[in-house]
Amino acid sequence: MFILVMQFFWKYIDDLMGKGLEISIIIELIVYLSAHLIPLALPLAVLLSSIMTLGNLAENNELTALKSSGLSLFRIMRPLMTFMIILALVTFYFSNYIIPVSNLKMRTLIYDIQQTKVALVLKPGSYTRELTGFSIKVGKGEENKFESVTIYDETNPQFVRVIKADSGELFKSPKGDFLLFKLTNGYMNEELPTPPPRINANGIPEYKEYKPARKSEFETATLKIDLSGFKLERTNEDLFKNQFEMMNIFQLDKAIDSSMNQYRDIAGTLSKGALNDHIYYLAKDYKRSLESESTEKRDSMLPVISDSSVVRLEALNDSQLRVAYNEAISKIRRRMQNFESQKHLLKTKYEELLKIDSEFHKKFALSASVLILFFIGAPLGAIVRKGGFGAPVVIAVLLFMIYYVISISGENMVKSQTVLPWVGTWLSSFILAPFAIYLNIRAGNDQPLTTVDFSFLKRLFRKK
């Protein structure tokens, strides 16, 4: 868990640094993040601990002593199996009720942190424009005391204020709402708004040749800067509640039904729209409406077509053919563009449906993976007869990499619509379950991991 949390902070370090976040906010984020990382950390922890436990028993000959008293491996593992079943049930409850809430709060908190403006950092020799409406440049200085301060105040759009001071000192108000810049020995120039023009006798506006300004000097002055945009503001969590990662299985089940109905409605509407836009189907509808009317009314509805109104292709000259062809091509292109936009809409809706369905199966697949990895690690530890943090860590990491690669491959296959969501979600369980059965049979019969004889390698590389 520590490694995974550090990986998260390494990824979001740019969003966290320089924001002036309180320790309580960081601790809150770590708590939500830890719950979010349980599906990734728990299978690895179960695999490692099961290899270490049975490996220690086998390495110290305690497993041999238990078997010599008439106990089988499965009888010895029965307390561990009971514990793992309870852990799998707790994992399902945690995945169904706790993780969605932690995901919701974590995403909301990360969003709020990202929206928080960067804290003010005055760098000597360069302008700082992090404060809205201010450009501040300072000379040399350290901590909160600086020399040669230049401030451009553009908070009032009517005029620009330039403040220069020999030195300055930064303070924060007790509540942290304002930044106070105490300036010493300086002056302030203000460019006032241009007065309206004077209308002469001929009705022509006359502008003054100068712009009014005001200059004032001071020994000490305090500039007050609002910091309301720099504080962390908490967003309403209801904005994120409709995302599928923040739902339990009951909400996901309803979301699947509603998404499927929306997909079918959109597909049906687009199909009807495409058919109604085609001349052939318009003619079929027109013919069907005519057949349902009486003979007299049908004759009155039929259009009168004379030879003079019919345009035949062979009667057109080259320029007229070219115009007709270009117009037909333009219509086809417009229709193709319309179909592409409709296809993209359908694809987006279908991908959303696949994600929701995959998340539904993940709730159950996590508990199953915990059990399967236990039944891989426990017999493997009894076979290799190694405990501690040496070989078990290496074996657990290699097996977990295989499990993780298979899981990610299944998710990518679902995204590419190669397999159904339940197949991609359960793919790692389908592949690793036979391997777990094989290991339990070998360990139960006190057989090595494989019957292949590798002694020829020793003979090949033996010392001469």
UniProtKB/TrEMBL annotation:
The entry's keywords: Cell membrane, Coiled coil, Membrane, Transmembrane, Transmembrane helix
Pfam families xref list: LptF_LptG
Organism: Wandonia haliotis
Protein's name according to its UniProt entry: Lipopolysaccharide export system permease protein
Transmembrane spans: 21-42, 80-99, 364-383, 389-407, 419-441
Membrane-topology descriptor: Multi-pass membrane protein
PANTHER family hit by this protein: SLR0882 PROTEIN-RELATED (PTHR33529), YJGP_YJGQ FAMILY PERMEASE (PTHR33529:SF6)
Cell membrane is among the record's keywords: yes
Subcellular location, record wording: Cell membrane
Lineage: Bacteria, Pseudomonadati, Bacteroidota, Flavobacteriia, Flavobacteriales
